[in-house]
Amino acid sequence: MDTSDNLDLPYIMPSQAQKHVTHNEAIGMLDALVQLRVLDRDLAAPPGAPANGDRYIVAAGATGGWSGQSGKIAHRLDGAWSFYAAKPGFFCHVADEGVFVHWTGSAWEPLTATLAVLQNLALLGVGTTADNTNPFSAKLNKALWTAKTVSEGGDGDLRYTLNKETAADVLSLLLQTGFSGRAELGLIGDDDLTLKVSADGSAWTTALKIDRTSGQFTINNAFNLNAALNISGAALGITRDGSASLMRLASYRDTNATHATFAADVARGSLAAPAYMTNTGLMAEFIVRPWDGTAIGNVTSGRLAFRASENHGASARGTRWTVELTPNGSTTTTEAGALDHSSGLSLFSATVIDANRHFRLRSYTIATLPSASPAGQMIHCSDLGGGGQVNSDGSVWRRVSRGGQQAVSSDADFTLTVFSSAEEQRHTGTLTANRTVTLSATNAYSGARFRLTRTGGGAFNLSFGGLKNLATNTWAEAVYDGSAWYLAAYGAL
Fold it and tell me: 235-244 — which CB contacts under 8 Å span 24+ positions?
């Protein structure tokens, strides 16, 4: 036999020459395989600058100098790589991962994958040291318990069971800050479910308690609710003196299925004989009733209401939402806004966004334009020359875009006025005398412009605001600088 049974170390044979070669080869193999620790197990090709003594587990798909050596132990020695096949049970520490792996005969697997059963441990510490007071201790940032699925041989359920010996004992979940108690939930000294809180870990207040027999719910020993709260006849009234906040509903959710909900269940008729809502019927409302000088709750100054927008039935339940407010100096609520599936969003009884999601501007004429202050207003002007919208800069109204085109064919003087006249003008008539186009300062704003193109005939001039005489097939453009019109451009066609 030339090699050892387990590690295949070469034996020194009788009468062998240069025995030191075989001896040194065996020493090298021992150095590579005993107390095995590799730098990495994810490389499929040799690293760039290996040092003597470096060891690696060759990853699958090996290439280059490691081609064909996948899964083997690569050992760098005297500037060359040696490769050793692992045997089942070989144990190795992977330095860059800080984990232990072992060779199964076909793959390197984490050691933890082989630990299936741990029984009757006296102490277990995860990330920390367990002691006799806390024989199971864990120091970590997250923990997960998940049900064993049916496909894995489980039933898909997960129940976390805690048990105490007698009713007088304590079974609880204690929540601490800096190892000082702040909240405790559980069966604390009896079999009722109790929640206690503390500001300092010493003095405790019972926040709520649920009786194990009746299910009665008690909050801070003052507010008691049975398992079901039913109110008939008079409304439920809650009065709070001197509090800025009467009721708050907060919900933190990880899924769309859990959320804060306020439900208004409504029907006509009675509990014994309910009926569908009819058109315009009030379905739910939130009203504000301020002090009226003698009592509170007698008058309404604001209302959010849901009303039926059609006669309801099994297949029709149209609903309209309205906001009703009281104007300054009035005592009567009027509709300020509404949302209707058919007509869209309206404000003060006028549609602002229709059901097609089209935005609708309020319409004015040039003569009824409102004040341009404040800036940023946009409106539709129904008699705007060339059509379009105008917006305000805080001082004057301006066209939103170039203002259309008009054709003039008359053999007479005429006037161009901002807003009333289109910005693009074409004169197509035949002149029998020199004619004048007056550029009016009415509605004019800095940057307003007119462009006049003459294509008509006649051996006479068309004076463009006294700025340029236009013969046939010529054009000119004038711009208002805030105080007067000036010639901005001209040319021939």
Answer: none
